[in-house]
Amino acid sequence: MNFIWQSFILILAGVLLLRIAGRKSIAQMTLAQTIVMISIGTIIVQPIVEKSMVKAIIAAAIFVISVIILEYLQLKSNAFEKFITGKSKVVISNGTLNIQNLKKLRLTVDQLEMRLRNQGIANIEDIQTATIEPNGQLGFELKEDAKPLTVGEFKKLMNIYFEEMPLNASNMQKTPDTPNLFEEINEQQENP
Question: How do residues 76-113 score in pLDDT, each as one tens digit?
């Protein structure tokens, strides 16, 4: 029965420590954070084998504190951040592949194209800059002609269009042949 309570205490301690460590998914973690999180999982299981629950919780807490200290040092020092986390690498510049950086990242052109397709990009020439971020994600900026139209840009275009279009009474009148989509609904509400 003691074994069951110890298991619950270890799980609660692990959840608490991981909450303190932060809310990053595995894809967003740096290499050091991933190692620490895996180590915490291993440490928490140890008391079940070795019967030393307090030592396991203290060891897991030390690992979490080390992650917090590493993150703090990365905030304060760019050199330390570059050493621990790394920097993003440019893999496409002005529609051209950077083969040298792809080799450094051990990433094939096919793998890069797969990531681009997952982002909805069909043509490498449409990309101004693409990077592989330290967490492994693809970051990109499209060229001006390949960017999708935003609502704000659409409104500006519509304002320009309607300013240039001459307004007269014939443009503003509703033609009798044009059906009103809501006439049927209005008629049903009047006649129950």
Answer: 988 877 777 778 899 999 989 999 998 888 888 998 99
13-20 long-range Cβ contacts below 8 angstroms, 24+ apart: 13/44, 13/57, 13/60, 14/40, 14/41, 14/44, 14/60, 17/60, 17/61, 17/63, 17/64, 18/64, 20/64, 20/68
Do 88 and 133 meet the contact criterion of CB atoms below 8 Å apart?
yes
Residue corresponding to tokens 């397709």? 117
CATH 3.30.240.20 domain locations along the chain: 89-146
Q: What is the pLDDT of residues 136-145, one digit of tens each?
A: 788 999 998 8
pTM: 0.54
**How far apart are the C-alpha atoms of 157 and 91, rounded to whole Å?**
34
Handedness of CA 93, 99, 103, 106 (dihedral sign): positive
Class of domain 89-146: alpha beta
